[in-house]
Design goal:
The chain contains 24 helices and 18 strands. By secondary structure, the chain is an alpha/beta fold. Helix 2 links the parallel strand 1 and strand 2. It folds into 3 domains: 175 residues, 3-Layer(aba) Sandwich (Rossmann fold); 165 residues, Rossmann fold; 171 residues, Thiamin diphosphate (ThDP)-binding fold, Pyr/PP domains (Rossmann fold, 3-Layer(aba) Sandwich), CATH 3.40.50. 35% of the residues lie in helices and 15% in strands.
């Protein structure tokens, strides 16, 4: 059997339904092996970065491995941003790059290049993958593929890269004689004594809170988390990456914490006496720039699959290195719940929600308010829709005001956070979950970075609906410049421009619409979502639109801008407030 045929057959055997690629000479054999296959789709993207993002979106939406394929040299290097996103956000993907023939590869020669488009992607990419392998021996291909699948999915998930030279791709192999990868038998065991300590801490707390991170989804532990919430009666907040780990109409859901978090959620975690942190790495966007002030009146139990994240940024009172699903299954065996004891705390949290949840009301005929748009989008999309959010102000407006319900998914990047990722992720999600409505929320700046994928959308007639918030600038950085740089809008307003998106989208033969007023939102969303074809809605908003609330540098999490008065903040604090407001 030809080795490239074996690679494709192996990927099909892993129940992976499609491969995203941009063609090139160094992957010609692999592309030929895809020809005529009816058990796997070959999806031709229009930039390798977009192919990597699509593989990421496919993996997030399917729960299986995403696969992207690129040629040597520029094709391989164009994958890097998407590979980095998969690595930082723990997404299982396999990236396959073509390489020049081994007899054209420089190896240890002190020259820059031997073969045309030769680039040592393995050395370049190693800091951003769980494993990177240059395949030099055809008879090891099964071993490397099986190892790649295991590494991508096991422990803390992430990407693996296989670099396959052209002469290896066309090599003849005997599948029955190929060496197998021996799966490690050791599995991360639950430490039951630590579970009992966690139970004891939770049972003796008066103001506990659950912080649900992105690891809950990665561990497929949503049902176990819901059971734990219902049994224990403990309120729950989420990180950005954990936003869809619990439905927002759950009575115990309090909001997203962080720099751009919901004020009620930040106040809740700031006043807790115990935080159960599940699958989160305490990023600075969660804790603020002074992590020592984060949940300062609280004991912390930190549960994570990666031991290196435990006691890394925030010191915990109890650390548990565990798969989250295993942890939640085990702790659900205990009766932690004491809802009468927690009734005062639940009442306080509900008071935060009542006081500080953003009021949503449509004012007819005035410029569109982004939070209103997101709220109305929540009610308009189906209960099983997948919403893909780009990076920038649009991400934070969505995170603050979308109301996730039913089995809806919210896909967005947290670690690499690349503008222009949402459309490609939406394409990947559409192939992972055919028939479901996919909504892409993006901004005018980010949309231009992978705008060419409109052709992919049209070519495959995917039911992806794009909602573009056009504030005619790079809004997030413009907001920084307003806050810290005396409104010197260099490169965000000065020098920035965008095309007429209506003309551009129509050139790709995609149905397009544009609105400017609040009273147009409902009808526009109804028209956008009425069919299963690609659609585009441009929403014109003010250049001065801000993301609020927002945490300034050096402030504790509970003290966001616009500031509450010192009197009002003190009234809402159980833990003594830090009221010295020096911003630097």
């Amino acid at each position: 059997m030809k080795l490239s045929d074996y690679v494709i057959k192996f990927i099909i055997g892993e129940k992976i339904k499609c491969i995203f690629e941009v063609c090139g000479g160094s992957i010609a054999h692999l592309l030929n092996s895809l020809y005529g296959k009816n058990k796997i789709a070959d999806i031709s993207m229009h930039h390798e970065q977009a192919a990597a993002f699509a593989a990421e979106g496919y993996s997030r939406a399917s729960g299986n491995i995403g696969v992207a394929l690129a040629t040597s040299g520029p094709g391989a290097t164009n994958l890097i941003t998407g590979i980095g996103s998969a690595y930082f956000d723990n997404i299982p993907c396999i990236f396959i790059t073509g390489q020049v023939n081994t007899y054209e590869f420089k190896f240890n020669k002190p020259v820059r290049q031997v073969g045309f488009q030769e680039t040592d992607i393995v050395k370049i990419i190693r800091p951003l993958v769980k494993e990177a392998i240059l395949v030099k021996d055809p008879d090891k291909i099964r071993y490397y593929l099986e190892k790649a699948v295991f590494l991508a999915k096991s422990g803390r998930p992430g990407p693996v890269l296989l670099d396959i030279p052209m002469n290896i791709q066309r090599a003849d192999i005997n599948p029955s004689r190929l060496k197998r990868y021996q799966l490690p038998k050791k599995r991360l065991a639950i430490n039951k004594s630590l579970i009992k300590k966690a139970v004891n801490l939770l049972s003796n707390s008066s103001r506990p809170i659950i912080l649900s991170g992105g690891g809950v989804r990665l561990a497929n532990a949503g049902k176990e988390l819901l059971r734990f919430i219902q049994k224990s009666g403990i309120p729950v907040v989420t990180s950005l990456m954990g936003l869809d780990s619990v439905a927002h109409d759950n009575d115990y859901f309090t909001g997203m914490i962080g720099t751009y978090g919901n004020r009620q959620a930040n106040l809740a975690i700031a006043n807790a006496d115990l935080v159960l942190a599940l699958g989160t790495r305490f990023d600075t966007r969660q804790t603020g720039t002074r992590p020592e002030t984060f949940a300062r009146g609280s004991k912390i139990i930190h549960v994570d699959i990666d031991p290196h994240e435990l006691n890394n940024k925030v010191k915990a009172d109890l650390i548990i290195n565990s798969d989250l699903k295993d942890f939640l299954k085990e702790i659900n065996r205990y009766n932690i719940g004491n809802k009468p004891r927690l009734s005062l705390w639940k009442k306080q949290v509900n008071l935060y929600k009542k006081r500080f949840s953003r009021p949503i009301s449509a004012v007819q005929g005035i410029s569109i308010e982004p939070h209103l748009l997101m709220h109305m989008l929540s009610t308009a999309v189906p209960a099983d829709a997948i919403i893909c959010i780009d990076i920038g102000q649009n991400q934070m407006w969505a995170a603050q005001s979308l109301k996730i319900r039913g089995t809806q998914r919210l896909l967005t990047q947290g670690g690499m956070a690349a503008m222009g990722s949402a459309l490609s992720m939406g394409i990947g999600a559409a192939f992972a979950q055919p028939g479901k409505t996919i909504v892409v929320v993006t901004g005018d700046g980010g949309f231009q970075l992978n705008i060419q994928e409109l052709e992919t959308l049209y070519h495959y007639q995917l039911p992806v609906k794009i909602v573009l918030l056009n504030n005619h600038c790079y809004g997030m950085v413009r907001q920084f410049q307003e806050q810290y740089f005396s409104k010197r809008y260099q490169a965000t307003v000065i020098g920035y421009s965008s095309p007429d998106f209506q003309d551009v989208v129509k050139a790709y033969k995609i149905k397009s619409n544009k609105i400017k007023l609040n009273n147009e939102i409902k009808g526009a969303l109804k028209r956008l979502l009425r069919d299963a074809k690609p659609g585009f809605l441009e929403v014109d908003i003010s250049k001065a639109s801000l993301v609020t609330p927002k945490l300034a540098v050096n402030r504790p999490l509970e003290d966001q801008e616009p500031y509450l008065s010192e009197k009002e903040l003190a009234k809402n604090m159980i833990v003594p407030p830090l009221l010295k407001r020096e911003v630097g």
